[in-house]
Structures are given as structure tokens and as C-alpha cells.
Amino acid sequence: MVALIVFMATILLSYAQEVVHPPFQTGDCSICHVKTQDGYSEALTTKVPDLCYMCHTRKDQKKIVHNPVKAGNCTLCHDPHKSKTQALLKAPSQNDLCVSCHPNIKKLLAKSKVHPPVELMSCSACHDPHSEDHEFRLKMPRKEICFMCHPDIKEHAEKSKNKHAAVFMRDGCLNCHNPHGADHPKLIHTAVPKDLCLSCHNKIMGREEDGDIIKNMAEHFALNPNPHGPNQWGDCVACHNPHGSDNFRILKAPFPSGHYAKFSQENYICFMCHDPTPFLEKETEASGFRNGKLSLHWVHVNKDKGIVCGACHDWHASSGNPHHIKDYTEFGKIKFSLNYVPTENGGFCGPLCHPRRGYDRVKPVFNPR
Known about the structure:
Elements: H1 2-14, E1 19-20, H2 22-26, E2 33-36, E3 39-44, E4 64-65, H3 67-70, E5 82-83, H4 94-99, H5 103-109, E6 113-114, H6 116-121, E7 131-132, H7 142-145, H8 151-159, H9 165-168, E8 181-182, H10 193-198, E9 205-206, E10 213-214, H11 217-223, E11 226-227, H12 229-232, E12 260-261, H13 277-280, E13 290-291, E14 294-295, H14 296-301, E15 306-307, E16 317-318, E17 328-331, E18 334-337, E19 341-342, E20 346-349, E21 357-360
Antiparallel strand pairs: 1-5, 2-3, 4-7, 6-8, 9-10, 11-16, 12-15, 13-14, 17-18, 19-20, 20-21
């Protein structure tokens, strides 16, 4: 009898805490424990979890059941008497309890950036700790649960004319973002956004509906060591919207999709960074691409069939020509050399578009028609 009193006293002293299990609060131990001649023993009237389910609805009825629940071990996570934590958890917080069995997640929660739902609301913001019908016991399918908190991204991704396949294929948002924690902005998987992009864009891609082909960008960068500014610092999203866009190649601003277009400053994303003056003024010194003062950008674009920037410049990377001038360009299925040769004050080119012509900023070159 003395031993039992000491046992019960130990429990009462150690559980002078905030959350009290209602059966324990009544002081009637017979609700759960077997009564003996000396009082109550540690033995239970019924095995766990059946004892718990006398008061609580079953937690093991959905397709994917958490292993402790499947084993019927409710007291692995919950204290049957008292706890300082809501739901009578056996840890200072829900996250502390979860990571005691999931050390890989504990490492992620130690990263410099932690996903706010995990940090502020706990693991159960997304996962059911008992059972669910979705993988990882997510409260919604993996491709949809992110949109519970990011409806703006969902609307943008679904309504964009040009959709980024990464948002919808395989793991959806998790293709690019870690849902728990990372050391990188936006919880992306890599320190440099470009490295993440090239983890998929390391092969030729295409769309069956219109036959649009995207080159192997990893190979392109490997063969062309002179990257365009944004690519030099690995920032593909400076120009592209990773969730989708109404613009060509999911760009953040318009750009013509073909080889020719009637020029309009508003129709080119390039002018987010580059000075449009050489394209708007026939005579200028605002560009190095001029013959004397005649702006050759103006000459090329100011016509009904203006030549788009991508005809001569590679906006991702070039082999070494100044100003990212291409070695080769394409017209339809024809690929041909620009034959560009730089000089001290200008240069020459001889593509299929026109005979060999030159320009010089100091001593203008005469180019016969």
C-alpha cells in the first residue's frame, strides 16, 4: 500500500502542469486502472488503444496510418495523465515530439529559413499525426496542399497561357522548394537558382501540341562560357517567371516569339535593363553598334519586319563574341553563320540575310546596297 501511495504521489508531483487528462482530473483511477486490495495498480482495465477508444474516436481508419497509431501505442506520444503541452504530448512542442523520431526533419528545421507553417503552427499544419488518405499523411494531395496558403500562386500557375511544367509534374511545388527548411531564399533546393533550373533543363524538351523545342540548356552553357548578365550570377528568374507566364518562354515581360516583329519598346523584356535609345533614335552615340552616328539597331528594327534581338544575340550565353553575338543563327530550319568579325572601332558580318557589311564608329564604312 505504501509503495502504491509513493507511486501515485510521484505521478501527482511530476504532473503539476497545465494540461490534465479529464479521467485523471476526476481522481477516479478506476476509469483506466485495475483496482486491487491495496488501491489501484499500474495495470489497465483494457489494453491500449482500446482503452483510449472508449472515449476517443478511432484514429486508424484512413489509408495511411502513422506507425505508432498502427501499433496501438498512443502513449508513445501522449501522456495519459498531465502535460505542459496541448494534446498531452510528451515533449515541449509538437515539433519537438515529431523530430525525436524524424532526425532528418530536425536537420531541416535547423536551416536558416524554415517554412512558416512548420515554424509557427507545427507539423500538423500539413500532416495528420494519426492517419490520412494522402501520402505522408498530408491533409491534401501533395500537389494541392501548398495552394492552401498560396492561392495566388495557384491562380497564376493555372491561368497562365504558358505553363511551367515543373509546377504540375511529379511532386509539383516540391520539385523546386523544400516544404520544411532550407538555407536558400524561397526554400529552393539549391543556393543558385540556375543550378536548380539546369537539374531539369539538362536535356532537349518539347511541347507536343505545337512542336516548340527548348534546347539542352546545361549543354548550351557548357559550350558557351560567356553568360549574359543574369545567367552570370545564376539568376534565371530575373527574366523568367518560374510559375508560368502569358509571355513567350514564361518571361516576366513580353518578347516576340518569331524571327521578325514590328518594333515596340513595350514588346521587349530586354529594356527592363538595356537602354532603348539606340532603337528609338536613328542617330545616336548611345550604342557601340553604329556606323558613325547611324544607329544600326535602329536600322535593323525600324521596319514592318523588324529583326528581333534573338536573331543576332544569345540572351543566355555566347562562345566569346562581344555583346553575346551568336556564332550561328537560324531561320526556319536553316542554320547559318553570322560571320561576325570585331574590329577596334566596329566590326563586319556576313550572314545569309545580306552581303558582308561593316561598321565603324570613328570612320563610317560605306556599304553598297
